[in-house]
Design goal:
alpha/beta; 6-stranded mixed beta sheet; 12 helices; about 40% helix; about 20% strand
Length: about 350
């Protein structure tokens, strides 16, 4: 399987690390033979049609220079769109930064990959939040696979749990704590009795929150993930504009104290069912509820027809964890392609 990697930040470097580290094991167990034939970033790309060796990928990662400056395979100035169009490969792994206003450049990268017959794995929530129904249809039209398990739950297999483990049941509704940053802030406020601003500052110092934190604290990140769950698991056709969204800026210590006296706490929850529009808002929940996780953990509860409530808990972010989700998606595509050959 020849892979074009688009985006070479923390997750991109994690992907090359995991592919190199797990290559022998996955090749033996699954017949999975990944070759990264190109890595594209904002300044250009490194391209080798025969595949960039693990040593070369490690050299590029440790180089400290723009990747396109590599003396052996560097291609300064080439655009990612041209790399996707011109370099022969089976899969494009798209992991550029999230943009929920226009979804670019990820949207164009994904569409270009589909049009050139390439499967896509992405961790980028932007295109899915703004145009998931259209992208899913475009992938089907071009007869390619589109996978994105790293967009919800990071390394925790939230989407796979619902699709595979609950396949014999009917999922009636979903609710979850889908953003580790807001969960950390609310946990700090509740446990240490500090203000929202102090908890946010601590989260920023620890690297959990960005300097401009609105994506997290205003509920946009949770809303994006709620859209993905609604489309992929419940079969709805919704986008970000359909989500009723409220963030956590107005949650006060007084609110948390009042909830605590009742044995509850407050969490930012994304919820979807078949009867109502997707909603993201602070919700008071019992401290004994399986969703009541602390720190940067995520938790998602699936309300099922037969199995009642099923909850999955895990880390929702992190470069190497999300890179693990990319490998999971690549293996899924490999299995589906192998199954096609047998039919």
């Amino acid at each position: 399987m020849r892979i074009i990697l688009v985006g070479y930040g923390v997750v991109g470097k994690g992907v090359t690390t995991i592919l190199s580290r797990r290559y022998t094991e996955k090749n033996k167990n699954f017949g999975f033979n990944p070759k990264v034939v190109a890595v594209a970033d904002v300044d250009g790309a490194v391209i080798n049609p025969q595949g960039l060796s693990p040593d070369k990928l490690e050299e590029i990662k440790q180089g400290g220079y723009p990747i396109s400056a590599d003396p052996e395979f560097g291609c300064p100035g080439i655009k990612a769109l041209n790399v996707i169009k011109e370099v022969e490969a089976e899969v494009v792994v798209e992991i550029t930064p999230v943009n929920i206003k226009t979804a670019e450049p990820a949207m164009s990268h994904i569409v270009q990959a589909f049009k050139t017959g390439k499967h896509v794995v992405t961790t980028n929530k932007g295109p899915l939040a703004l145009a998931m129904p259209a992208l899913t249809e475009l992938a089907q039209y071009n007869n390619v696979y589109f996978r994105f398990s790293g967009t919800v739950g990071g390394g925790t297999p939230v989407l796979e749990f619902a699709k595979r483990c609950l396949a014999g049941d009917q999922i009636l509704g979903i609710k979850g704590i889908l953003n580790g940053t807001t969960n950390y802030i609310l946990s700090e406020m509740s446990q240490n009795r500090i203000s929202f601003q102090d908890a946010l500052s601590t989260a920023q110092k620890l690297g959990y929150a960005e300097r401009e934190p609105s994506m997290d604290i205003d509920g946009f990140d949770t809303a994006c993930k709620t859209v993905i769950l609604a489309n992929w698991i419940l079969g709805q056709k919704v986008t970000l504009k359909d989500v009723e969204r409220t963030g956590i800026r107005e949650v006060s210590l007084q609110d948390l104290d009042r909830a605590s006296k009742l044995g509850n706490t407050i969490k930012l929850v994304g919820a979807i069912d078949d009867k109502n529009k997707p909603v993201v808002k602070p919700v008071e929940i019992s401290k004994t509820n399986p969703l009541c996780v602390s720190g940067v953990l995520n938790a998602v509860t699936f309300q099922c027809e037969f199995a009642a409530e099923q909850t999955i808990v895990g880390r929702g972010a992190g470069g190497i964890e999300t890179a693990g989700a990319v490998l999971r998606d690549l293996l899924d595509i490999r299995h589906k392609l192998a199954a096609k050959l047998l039919t």
